[in-house]
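Dear colleagues,

As part of the handover before I leave the project, I'm documenting each prediction I ran so the next person doesn't have to rerun anything. This entry is a single chain, and its sequence is reproduced below.
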Amino acid sequence: METVEPSNGAKKHTPAARAKPLDVVEDVRRLPLASLRPTPNNRDCGDLKDLAASIAQVGIVEPLVVRPLPDEDGQEVYELVVGNRRARAAASVGETDVPCIVRVLSDQQAAEMSLIENIQRADIHPMEEAVAFERLSKEHRLTAEEIAAKVGKAVAYVYGRMKLTALCPKARSMFLADKLTAALALLVARIPDAKMQAEAAERIATGRYPGAEPMSLREATEYVQREHMQALSSASFNVADAHLVAGAGACSVCPKRTGNQAALFSDVKGKDVCTDVACFKSKQDADWVERTKIAARDGQRVLTDKETKKIFPYRSDRVADGTGLVALDERCYSDPKGRTFGQIAGKKLELDITIARDPEGRVRELVKKTDLTAAIKDSGKKVPAQLAARPVSSMSEQEKKRQRERKIEKEVTRRAIAKLVAFGEKTGPTKATQLALARALIQESWRELALSICARRAVDVPTKGGASDGRAALVKHAETLELNALHALTAELIMGKLGQGYAGTSETSATALAYEAFKVDTKKIGAEVRAELAEAAKKKPAPGAKKKVAKRKA
């Protein structure tokens, strides 16, 4: 084991047997640096220039803590438990002895004291502090409460620091590189899945779109709770079932339920929130398999994926109007007690149930509105106004019209894009087409994205009424560019737009410019689609008409 001596040289010693614990001796003595041996737990001392300058001026104010070791070659030697940086700094300015408090400590006591002293450094990184807390917990078997008492911190602070050790390698490197603050790193560390951690860390550090500032703590908290947490109240499976997924256990006692680690999830509203969405989804999948087996046994119908999309359009968990169905777990807004349709019907009513899985992954029990209305009426109960408010047998004409228009719009867009691509392949890129695409992307971009691109390209953005919008300035800038530069700007806009979230597919004034540049007539395409649909409607038999059945020849 090395000695701590002035910088002119140091004698090396092999590890010696530890002395048995004796009574504590608290006297301050000046001991030669040559007699001190660093503890194995000492960390890198870091920059000692300021500390060395202070010691050269006023000496060591706070004594070091050492424990006696067996003599070496008849000389007294000591293990340096607390004060390694001070000893190194003193040696660097030529000091030969230092003030020390001699204590007789067990190996565990010495290790704990050294770790705690290292933790209490002013310049310690939160990740280093986290690792030290974990060592005190695992190697020295201290509870979070005991660690908190020893270092003078709140218990929640200790839990939070220890959770940082759960960061995946990518998130940890980003934290150490100061791309994440300690608070943001903790949000990421609480996500159990390493891949999801890495994605969340990248998303938080880069912001909502390319070129944006990193997320604030509030934005990151909302993002993590929205994307990586799930309220257990929304589960269609039994949260108390410990055997639904092998090894997962029951949600009620799971450590990834916020209520079971209140100190770690004090910022999350509600105790019944799952923080492992991957596990939550696996339980939903397992529950769906079991429910389909039960449905097959009981003769219940199970909707196909295609049928389910019609019942729950636009990724909504509400049953669409005009389907003639109602979900038994859906709350009846006309019921003064706020009950669900299932609660209104009661368990005694016999209904033909169809099961489906909504876009959120929940298992839903569906019944025909006509059947539910008749059953409630036959039982002598009052039929809710919500069921009697409108005919349930067919879709309204207004809704049919909206669906037809959406279908036409979708087909027009599909054909227009196909013609745009064909024109581009035939003529190749031109300044006119590239400029039209750039204009379309600029006008459809968020204000923040346009401003960030203007800033990167040093484009002046005029301010009107105290606000600035870079889109107009960026369009003028695009008009000055040649083909290759326009191509680069288009790529920059597309990549930036990918980070903006949802963008509609319907034609706007901006996309119309692009279609015009590529010689695509959307009105003509629209007329063709309408004519084709009208022709198809003529061939379709009228409602209620009987199909002609060809007679079999004898």
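The CA atoms of residues 131 and 165 lie 6 Å apart. Residues 300-395 form one domain.

All the best with the project,
I.
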